[in-house]
Amino acid sequence: MASASAKVKQRTSTDNQCSACYSEHIMVIPKARYIIMTSVLPLFVTAAIAIIFHLLFLLFIPALVWMNVMIAQRKAPLVVCRECRHTSKGSVPV
Length: 94
Hints:
Elements: H1 2-13, E1 26-29, H2 31-52, H3 60-75, E2 78-81, E3 87-89
Antiparallel strand pairs: 1-2, 2-3
């Protein structure tokens, strides 16, 4: 009985494991990296469209950044398992 509760306690106390396969090979994407990762391509595309067509498209850049910050506040830190590719919102300290 004591060993069964010890296994459960060990499994819930370690935050460095994937919740799907219990692998310890995880990657944690913090909030700042998540914002950069989701903002770079849309910002380049918006800047290219503004240069090619009209500078008025530059007004969309603050909205893109604001939207990505709002999304990152809900999703980050993102935990990705390197073995099974399971993603989850984590509370793993970076």
